[in-house]
Design a protein that fits this description.
The protein has 305 residues and is an alpha+beta fold. The chain folds into 2 domains: 8-114, Gcn5-related N-acetyltransferase (GNAT) (Aminopeptidase), CATH 3.40.630.30; 146-302, Aminopeptidase. The chain has helices at 18-32, 40-43, 49-53, 97-112, 126-134, 165-179, 186-195, 236-252, 267-275; strands spanning 8-12, 57-64, 67-77, 80-88, 116-121, 138-149, 198-203, 206-211, 222-230, 257-263, 279-290, 300-302.
Length: 305
């Protein structure tokens, strides 16, 4: 691996950096998963552009001279923050670049005054666990990314939210605040609506923020549930109705499967997904700094990758 001779500068990621950042993230993820080069699977996925344009996210870059050697993202969900991706170009691993990026990320989280921050990583990597533990993040529960083929039954002619944006934001905020004071995902809603990433579906006691299409992080044939929640006190049938709405939206946009994430600390939601025919595609571990919003009866789905 080439050694960096000059000092590494950590700065805000700019629009001009996006093509190089997309390539770097694809290469880093492929290498972590044991692939020599990113192939078609990675070429169809963009983990940078949509998040960079989102109003609630912040990206940093690590630069050695004119060479981009690392990037990192953090999104703010009210008083909660979610970190990821943190990626370093494989040619520059083992040179403390990720540590420098994390220092800037955690500094920003402290400026925001967040009561909790979390991230997804791989439980079989002592290197990753050690990096994040250095900054006060500790592993708790498994985090499962799950998929289910579409059933073929469409339950709604037009499941996407059709009302005014302020009403949607208020509906979603009432649910997330009931789950955890200070939890809000309005930035995720705005990102979907302003940048054509997907749509939001809502029921009387729940909502889901869905991504689909060519710009979907999960791939063009997938409807990806970025975040979904059901009001506390609702039973599992409320989660079932919400997933049906997501599936109807997916069918309208020619997706072949539904993808979502769940922390196994929310045991009721995890068990329901298994019983409903979802299978685990990727298994990681959630790492936390501060008190999060997990609980055995919480019906909340999110993906921290």
């Amino acid at each position: 691996m080439p050694r960096i001779e000059s000092s590494v500068e950590v700065e805000d990621l700019q629009a001009v950096d996006l093509p190089a950042a997309r390539t770097l993230v694809r290469e880093a993820f492929a290498h972590v998963l044991g692939e020599a080069e990113p192939g078609e699977f990675w070429d169809q996925r963009d983990y940078v552009s949509g998040r960079w344009h989102a109003p609630h996210s912040h990206w940093f870059k690590a630069r050695a001279g004119e060479t981009l050697v690392g990037v990192a993202c953090v999104v703010r969900w009210g008083e909660h923050a979610v970190i990821g991706p943190v990626a370093v170009a494989p040619a520059y691993w083992e040179q403390d670049i990720a540590k420098q990026l994390m220092a800037r990320i955690t500094g920003l989280i402290d400026q925001w005054g967040c009561v909790h921050a979390g991230l997804f990583t791989f439980p079989d990597s002592p290197r990753h666990l050690g990096l994040y533990q250095h900054f006060g993040f500790w592993p708790r529960c498994l985090a499962a990314v799950m998929v289910r083929p579409l059933s073929g039954s469409v339950v709604a002619a037009n499941p996407a939210w059709q009302g005014e944006l302020p009403a949607l934001q208020a509906h979603c905020r009432n649910i997330t605040e009931a789950i955890s004071l200070g939890l809000e995902v309005e930035g995720e809603i705005l990102a979907v609506q302003q940048h054509g990433l997907g749509a939001v579906v809502a029921t009387s006691d729940g909502f889901a923020i869905c991504h689909y299409g060519e710009r979907c992080e999960a791939g063009p044939d997938v409807c990806y549930v970025r975040f979904a929640a059901v009001r506390p006190g609702a039973d599992a049938s409320s989660l079932a109705r919400l997933i049906e709405q997501c599936e109807a939206l997916a069918a309208q946009h020619s997706a072949r499967q539904l993808m979502l994430g769940v922390n196994t600390g929310r045991l009721r939601a995890y068990r329901w997904l298994l019983e409903a025919g979802f299978s685990i595609r990727i298994l990681g571990v959630s790492m936390h700094r501060g008190a999060g919003y997990d609980g055995e009866t919480v019906l909340l789905l999110d993906d921290w990758r």
